[in-house]
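Think of the structure tokens as a kind of shorthand, similar to the way a musician reads notation: each symbol stands for something richer, in this case the local conformation of the backbone. In the example below we present two proteins back to back. Begin with the first one, reading the sequence and then the tokens, and try to describe in your own words what changes along the chain.
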Amino acid sequence: MGYCLAVGEFDLIRRLAPYLDVAGGQLLVGHGDDAAVLQVGDRGLCVAVDVLVEGVHFRRDLSGWGDVGWKAVAVNVSDIAAMGAAPTAVVVGLSLPPDVGDVEVEAVYAGMREACDRWGALLVGGDTVAAPVLSLAVTVLGDVAPTAAVPRSGARPGDRVVVAGALGAAAAALVQVEAGAVPDDRLLAAHRRPRALPAAGRALAAHGARAMIDVSDGLGADLGHLCEASGVAVRLRADALPVADGVAGAAGDRLWAVVCGGGEDFALAAAVPAGAADAAAAAAADADGVPAAVVGEVVRRGAGAAVVLTLPNGGTMDLDGLGYDHRHGTGDHR
């Protein structure tokens, strides 16, 4: 049985921060980023871990067993991508309820194998344990030059915001499911088998990205984390966002809440010096074959909202906190 506590996911993370090591010595990037980076010889070792839980991150009626395995790898490769790194190896902790048999487990591993092959990572093993609910705790290791890792904390006023990857598809599919409609196959595919963008991440890093984050919880929430880490604010243009095909029809009058707050996009959002932003967007698009665009600007942090979207009609929408909270299993689609 699931349960919720009074504090949300990010409040809990802040409360745990005093127990965690911060950057220093061999730890190049510590708590508060998409992945940790440790100095190992002359290289940077990236380490990212995510847990996928049935009923929170996937549903058996919407995803096949292979989809579950693929997604468990993809969401972690996306964190490695946000550091400008290349994925190298994957280990998994698999918790199995009594109704999941050997055939299903093999299908999960086949999905992980496909994802590892897609992104050039080794699937090297892990652990399996009996549990009351199905979950996968996947750790992905990555490689990056120690000075090339891109944290969340480097954005500066005047930088441009580049987004690589289409937005809104997975969330729009779930909107259709919640409404009792048959979901668009294009949209549902984004929920079942999300696409990580490590090549685009490396392209953005090569073009001078000063801060980067993967868009897993929603563009508003994730850019909010980047703004908090960098001490800045962001102003976005709705008409510049790379919205996935089919999202507008599925989302209806909730379009911008779904696009900016639905989560599970696994796009990349980066702060890039103004003079390099157009080239960075083009390189990211070419690297992974996805839409990419300059969608806004980094500004000085003031008293107002950190992340604001200018709508096509000239109005504005405050995106602070708009996103998915894994602690409570809900998204804020205002």
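Once you have a description of the first chain, move to the second and do the same.
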Amino acid sequence: MAGAVCRARSSNHQSNDWRGELNRAAREHGIVNFRGQPITFAADDAAADEPYEVFIARTGGVPTRANLHDFFNALVLLQFPRSKAQLNRLQSAAIARDGVGPIRGPLRDAATLIDENAVLLVTLRTDLVQSLRAHDWPTLFAQRRRAWSDEIMVIAFGHALLEKLVRPYKAITAHALHIPLAAGASLSEVDQRVAAALDDDMSPEHLMPLPALGVPGWCAQNNDASFYSDAAVFKPANMRPQKLSGEAIE
């Protein structure tokens, strides 16, 4: 799908040892956690009773089950290592400070939403970000449609989102995070900006709901303007939770 740029590192040979291939790629590119420990993709039971984020922070091991959800998580980590390391730093520190309980708080809520379901909206067109924030779908997807081809780069970052996009359906809604860079920025630049921006003040208020298949180029059906008339998916602003202000993370 166009825009879902997270991809596996290419290999010169085939192997049935998919976890070994992920580890080879991590070693080759020097992928480390925020403590500088090498990242390894471990068996799914490696963490035992230790919280997932705490285990990664302590050991560099990433429990990786044999399913698409965890496989996509590994691919995102290989493509955006700084961002994923920062999310892990924030999550593990919050768990160490507050423990694991039924209420995670705004920081861990935001980190989870970004990790699982985010798209990165890379653009300097703040007017289009305002249109998304206001649920102004006609402006965003009709009047300014051409901007999506050269002034906005949309990157599927959340691994749960990537899993949904394997079998897409119209109602898939991502959490959009505005990254104020030119659409031609490299993925390394995007990774650096995201990692530098994520901090203890992060909250769900920085995110905006974006119907993923509404992104021009992500779905052939959205070439027909009637695609956007479905109010159950492209909700008016008065149906939007007020806490989602969509502020850029600077």
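Compare your description with these statements about the second chain. The first strand starts at residue 40 and ends at 42.
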